[in-house]
Amino acid sequence: MTDPTVVEHALAVGTPVRCGAYRLDLTTGAWWWSDQVYAIHGFEPHEVVPTSELLLAHKHPDDRDRVACALDPGAGPDEPFSCVHRICDASGRERLVGVVGEAQHGADGSAVAVGGYVTELTAVVDDHAQATASASIAAAAQSRAVIDQACGAVALAARTDPRTAFDRLRVASNDANVPVRTLATAIVTSLPELGGDLGRLARFLDSLLAPATAPPDGPAAPRAGRATSGDDGAPPPTRSSMRQHDAPPRAGHADGAPGPAAPATARRATALLRACHPAPAAAVTLFAGAFAAGAAGAAPGRAVLVAAAVLAGQLSVGWSNDWIDAARDRAVGRVDKPVVSGDISPAGLRAAAVGAAAACVVLSAALGAVPGALHVGLVAVAWSYNAGLKSTAWSWVPYAVAFGALPSVATLAVPDPAPAPWWVTAGAAMLGVGAHLANVLPDLEDDAATGVHGLPHRLGRRRTAAGAAAVLLAAAAVVVLAAPGRPGGGGLLALAGAAALATSAATVALRRPASRWPFRAAMLTAGVVVVLLVATG
Fold first, then answer.
1. Domain with 95 in it: what CATH number?
2. pTM of the model
3. Who is most buried in 201, 400, 467, 506, counting CB within 10 A?
4. pLDDT digits (tens, 9 = 90+) for 143-152
């Protein structure tokens, strides 16, 4: 039997309200009210005789016509019904009530009465309005503080007054089609990473607040809702109040700030290196070269050519990612991205990505028609992720396809070409999916804030972390257990290590969702899978 206290706790939720019962006899038109219904209408119990005319007299004038239709005795409802409307009680006070009811049927099946309940909702609505107003006031005060801080940063970097700084924020807000509060939050949260460097702060603000027009010799004006910059990362703005800050820097100074200026070419090279996603690019390149030299048996020169083609493809993928995501990264203040910090422009990244893609086509063609075409196709699949698939539930597909088929590029580029064994393809595909899930973990909130809703974002942090660990563990199991022959001691030891890492990642993800260990453990598991693929492929 159900514990009565459990039922009480389950039902006693929300704000207490006054509720009473009523019944209308459809054959006589007679009403019965409980004491609470009298009180809701402002009467003492049985002070008046309830009638349809009395009810209508107390309905709010704007609601009276539609309530009159519901009170027509000839139109008794056959299905349960509910409505919310206003009444004016005996003292003239306006109240909001909710009414529910259903028909009661006689022996012949026709409706003979309507009964139900009246609930006064006035206090509930008032409490909600008060809470909403209080929250709005608190949010406005908090937003005002963030905006004031951002205006201070802009004023300091631009050597202007706070009012002009706010005008610049407002113009950038209109150009980028994002709230001023969002831009201000991006600036304030990025200040610690900028480390008090006025030159870096100025470049960051130029990039984040870039106007929606470009100089005559710069790139075309962007579409509405997107802000971009010129080739040097900071086109001249149109507001005269910003001329002093945006004037060309004095010789020997960066952005007009004291101190030696870094050579433009060195800064651009560093920005390109940072923007290519160097860690995954290097890892995939090393894997491809090592697999070609080891498992595929390619000659050293051939293995180097495979690695070079893969490196060119990875560079194009990394640069296109930062180029396409420039507006999103600016919106969330990703100052770790060179395109946001102002070290390179989206146009510069676009040129680099296209150039690397062209080099990839040339180097892939040198591998032969079949492996070359396969590799170029895989790079195109990776670009499709950057171009839009990352925001869909199919975001994992490019990783599965590109990683799964990559070993076959190496095995098809040797004198006795053949596709990679099925278990290598399956293990590499699962490695790609696991890497995708793990790689997105640190950026889930930033991605979601800018409209990216791929598979990891739909799963949530906990399930993504656990899923990454599980898929990578499955990849290790396939590579170790499905390879021809009995698994060696080293393979089983590596599988045990992958299992330990996967278990710890899943456990931490469930207990501490904000921890970065699931991401690190997934990356370590991926490293184990890569070593197994090279060693056993």
1. 3.30.450.20
2. 0.54
3. 201
4. 678 888 888 8
